[in-house]
Structures are given as structure tokens and as C-alpha cells.
Amino acid sequence: MKESTTTQRPSSSEFRAMRKGSSREGQTGALIVLPPAELQEARKLQAGRSGNVAGTVARFEIYGTQGDTVDQNSSAMKLLGLALNAQNQPVVNALILFDVGVDNQTGSAFYIKGDPTPRAETFAITGEYGYFMAEDALVTGTTPGALRIHVAPADDPEGAVSATYEREVSARTPVTMERVSGGGETFPVRSVVTVDAAALLRNDEGAPIGYGHLRFAVYDPDDTGTLLLYGSVVASWIEVPLDDDGVAVLAEVLKIGDRNPGASFYIRASRHGKEPFFDFEYSTV
């Protein structure tokens, strides 16, 4: 999340309006690729951005652990990277292409928000510090196997400067979440407390899932006004890695609200904001 705060993504309403695309046949069937007109529109956005390209992209740094396992049918994977020139300085305002590849056998594809058409490619424009993130969500497919996403400068996508994100789409899917510890406590309104909540994630065979993260957030249907804090900053949610036993433990600070004394609130654990989830109930007084 820290890297993404420095990534300046382009305003792309005009760009999206151009996205009619052409198609090519890969293992997943027809995937839309970026046609020349769409690239021209992306370059217009690039030209309208403040800052000049600080040299040519000579190498990429990409974030995340290569070979990590990811869930099927998930958009949780964020494609974040850094573009550097030959002097290891950030390259600003560079147009970057992402490609899931014609040899993609997992069914993974990029999707524009609100458009169900699968796409083989998307783009990014590097921000002030050279960081970039894929403009559209990558949704993993439902076929297990190796997933590779190629990234390269748009001006030379087949050239020597490139990088590849490598992940493994899991053969199993998360289906249940259980409480290990936490919940059942009562806190005074306006107090600041540390809460501990642990949840266990299991797959469709009942075995623990020991990869990825769980997301923890305050679920407050009774409007107590309780806030989750990350340090001194209010957090919408916090992601915690699962250990090898499939357990994630939240140990963070809550600021208990005073809008509805006596009401309950919940810490909701989920798989990246989606089911399965588990609600840890807490009371106020």
C-alpha cells in the first residue's frame, strides 16, 4: 500500500471511451489487445502529464514475491513496479504495457471496470517517482497453473528491457473462515484499546490455506463510530499475512466511538474484502 500512494495514475475517462479493441486467440479464447488507436489515446494522456521522461527505461523493479500462490477468480493481485533509467534514476511519465500472454492457460485477464470483456493487455503511466501500477484489474482465472504477466516499455514491447510477474493460480479455493481467538470483549466509549483477533482460513478440502492475506476492517452496522488505527492513521482496512497453519492475527489499535453507547461493533476478517468472512463481535459501554 505504501508504494501505491506514490503512484500517480492517469485520469482515463477519455482513454476508456476509446477501448473497443481488436482480439487475438490465446489459450483462454478471444482476448482484447490494445489497438493502435488506443495506444495513441494513451500517449495523449502521457503528453498531457506534468514532468518529462528522465531518460529511457533501462530496467524495472517489480513488487511482490515471485512464485507466490494466488486464489482463483481474484482481483487482489496488484501489479506495482518502478521504472529506472541507466543511471538508476526514476523514469517519469513513461508509458508501460502489461501483457498476460497468448500462452496464458489459467484464464486470467485484465478487465476494465464495468466491462465484462477479458483483455490480454493494459497500461500504466509512471508517476513522479517512477512508480507505476496496472490501470485495469487483473482477475485470475479458474484454471490452476503458472501465471506470467510481461511488462515492458510501450515504445519497445518486444525489446530487451522487460520484467515478468510470476504467480501460481491455486488448485484449491478458500471456502470457510473460523475464529481462533478474539471477540467477546466490552470497551468503554472514547477509549483507545489494542485488539487481538485471529482467524483461520480453510480451502474446499478443509485444509488450512497458508498463503496470501486476510483483510481486517471495522464493520459497524449500529454506528458506534469505532475506528481502526494503523499507527496514528485511521485505516479502512489492514491486511495481515497468513502463516503456514492458515492463521492471520490482527493486533492493532481501536478508537472506540461514542455515538451509540451499549451497541456492538465487529471486526470483520475477509479474503481481500470478499467471502468467506468472520465477524468478531465487541460491545461498548
How would you sum up this structure, described in words?
This protein is mainly beta and 285 residues long. The chain has 2 domains: 168 residues, Immunoglobulins (Immunoglobulin-like); 111 residues, Sandwich (Immunoglobulin-like). A 5-stranded mixed β-sheet has the order 4-12-11-6-8. Strands 13-15-20-17-18 form a 5-stranded antiparallel β-sheet, with no helix packed on it. The longest helix is centred in the first third of the chain and has 12 residues. It is globular. The protein starts with a helix and ends with a strand. The N terminus is likely disordered.
Name the CATH superfamily assignment of the largest domain: Immunoglobulins
Task: Give the neighbour order of strands across the main sheet.
Answer: 4-12-11-6-8
CATH class of the largest domain: Mainly Beta
The average pLDDT value, as a whole number, equals 85
Radius of gyration: 22 Å
Distance between the ends: 34 Å
The CATH topology of the largest domain? Immunoglobulin-like
Find the structural class using helix and strand composition: mainly beta
CATH architecture descriptor of the largest domain = Sandwich
